[in-house]
Task: inverse folding
């Protein structure tokens, strides 16, 4: 091209030697960000799920709470003026593998059937500012009026601060509704640190 294109454009080729400027793909888009969560008992992201995207990745980084607690979530409906979807139909299976400094290791399974909330980890250490929990959490087509599936992976320090825990699992919310948002929160206490971002994938 004989110019440098517009801001944020990328250089593309047709495979036959012709180069042109084009807008970057919008197949993956940041839809919501909590900013640094230093207070409050809950982060609600409303009006983020729609027919535009089929799956969503939620990333939580360096989360710490004011009390030892697991991360819980509920789906929400109603768009921008969202409210919790209160059906007790959250079923999940999480496998936890842990190890401490002494070389001890163990594994256990944490499950629920038709619970009132979903959970993606166990109690995260709250006393040590250097010991946090981080997660990746993918939700599949929540806007479709059918059961909504998710998978999750969390790496964290346990409530004693002596064990690192690798938790992988997933579940389903067996309720036929167009889900438009999500609320993510510690099961007790408030946020002290961390950030949550939500991305949409076409």
Result:
């Amino acid at each position: 091209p004989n110019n440098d294109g517009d801001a944020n454009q990328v250089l593309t080729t047709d495979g036959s030697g012709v180069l042109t400027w084009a807008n970057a793909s919008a197949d993956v888009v940041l839809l919501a960000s909590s900013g640094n969560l230093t207070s409050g008992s809950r982060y609600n992201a409303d009006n983020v799920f729609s027919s535009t995207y089929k799956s969503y990745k939620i990333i939580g980084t360096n989360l710490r709470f004011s009390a030892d607690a697991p991360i819980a979530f509920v789906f929400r409906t109603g768009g921008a003026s969202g409210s919790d979807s209160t059906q007790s139909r959250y079923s999940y299976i999480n496998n936890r593998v842990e190890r401490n400094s002494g070389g001890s290791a163990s594994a256990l399974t944490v499950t629920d059937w038709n619970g009132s909330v979903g959970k993606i980890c166990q109690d995260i250490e709250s006393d040590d500012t250097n010991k946090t929990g981080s997660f990746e959490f993918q939700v599949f087509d929540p806007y479709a009026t059918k059961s909504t599936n998710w998978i999750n992976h969390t790496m964290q320090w346990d409530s004693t601060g002596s064990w690192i825990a690798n938790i992988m699992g997933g579940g389903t919310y067996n309720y036929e509704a167009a889900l438009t948002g999500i609320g993510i929160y510690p099961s007790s206490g408030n946020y002290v640190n961390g950030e949550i971002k939500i991305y949409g994938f076409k």
Observations:
- The longest strand covers residues 55-65.
- The chain has a mean pLDDT of 93.
- The two ends are 30 Å apart (CA to CA).
